[in-house]
Description:
- Chain A is of the alpha/beta class.
- Chain A has five helices and five strands; from the N terminus they run H-E-H-E-H-E-H-E-H-E.
- The longest helix of chain A has 19 residues.
- Chain A is globular, with a radius of gyration of 20 Å.
- In chain A, 41% of the residues are buried.
- Chains in contact: A-B, A-C, B-C.
Amino acid sequence: xxxxxxxxxxxxxxxxxxxxxxxxxxxxxxxxxxxxxxxxxxxxxxxxxxxxxxxxxxxxxxxxxxxxxxxxxxxxxxxxxxxxxxxxxxxxxxxxxxxxxxxxxxxxxxxxxxxxxxxxxxxxxxxxxxxxxxxxxxxxx
Amino acid sequence: xxxxxxxxxxxxxxxxxxxxxxxxxxxxxxxxxxxxxxxxxxxxxxxxxxxxxxxxxxxxxxxxxxxxxxxxxxxxxxxxxxxxxxxxxxxxxxxxxxxxxxxxxxxxxxxxxxxxxxxxxxxxxxxxxxxxxxxxxxxxx
Amino acid sequence: xxxxxxxxxxxxxxxxxxxxxxxxxxxxxxxxxxxxxxxxxxxxxxxxxxxxxxxxxxxxxxxxxxxxxxxxxxxxxxxxxxxxxxxxxxxxxxxxxxxxxxxxxxxxxxxxxxxxxxxxxxxxxxxxxxxxxxxxxxxxx
Lengths: 141, 141, 141
């Protein structure tokens, strides 16, 4: 009986140890991008970089991607941004989460209805990127 | 006796495994910010971002924050920088570590007495940020 | 016999657990730098920062360093870049891996023979930095 309990304990430990060394279910890669630049080359590059990254990682287990928009970068998510509307919506349809920073929204007096309907929100864009890194996501700026 | 030793070994392993999956004591979140930009919008944004981040994370276990100043960003820590003196001192009083890169100090011929008295120092600003990331800190630039 | 098997199992678990908490063999520190800026101060700073970082970390277990060149930063690796040729080659001789992004090469119609012979390549510069971070490397931009 005691031996059985001990064997059980060892099994539990083994499972715990294996669990610690494994990645969570779902895509193999997790990447959070920062977009904090004002209108300019950084906006077009973001679309290109996210697409290229997802394509490269699709051949290697797939990726979960989130972009955090804050500071002057938040303006890329304004629904009046017709230049990028289609490309951003396509990213969203491809599963990329586009997250607006609520602090940046307050600073610029922007409401939810001023942003693209496919945009999500976080209390603080930087806190969001901190949490993602803590959860093992790679960070790209 | 042998069984007791074995049980002890299992206990030790269990503690080690649990230890590996736990965060250290203190605040839940740890963030190192990079400030390498010259005088301009980045300086004001830094203050705003650090404060917003700490506020957001205060509702979720608290945060330990460090800012590493290097390259042209070091100049933000010069005690002649009266525009930001008060805001930087307030960050320091709130527990934020403000770290000057000694390589940047040498390159610009700045001595300890040229910087705010509340500024700390690291041999290399980048090496400092590497060590923080290795210790599990999130990195924000 | 059963006890011996059990002891063996415990030993295996112990080794696995210890393995999880140890860094891989080789240098203690691993750093991937991003160079995505066009020609300007960022190019000279990169050389300075890599050298300073390696020097600082050499006194603390040593470092393995890689620089990923993408976007307009790729042009730093063009072999017509005589201003930086010598300094980049010296980095390479010091063991720093200089990696060109193939997406950036395609976008700019650059072939392998257009780049310095000591430059390596990755399918996607960002995917490369993601993989490095996943492998525990610190990321610096």
